[in-house]
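Amino acid transporter
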Amino acid sequence: MSDDRPTRRDLMKPVQLLGLAFGAALFAGIVTLVSMGFFQTQTAEERQAAVVLALIIAGISFIAVLVIVALLLLAVDPAQITKTVDRGVLVDDEDDDPDATASGDGPKPSS
């Protein structure tokens, strides 16, 4: 039986993380251009000011996304990198403590 679930190493490729940061920066830059009225009739100075501000906002968002994703990756245990992912990362294991649900200490099973 083939195991086609991705490993954590497959999910954390640097090119994909840079692509995510670049996409967020591009989105922030376009939103800034639209909100500054770049695509409307303006003078050359107003267009230049809109482009400069959009580039600044795009750069800030690119760096912020990279830092946030890097900090989130630090939360992953390096021993778990080669394990396959078959459920959400923050979902509790159901079979960790079977006595907790019986005694009422753990979360209640959903209906």
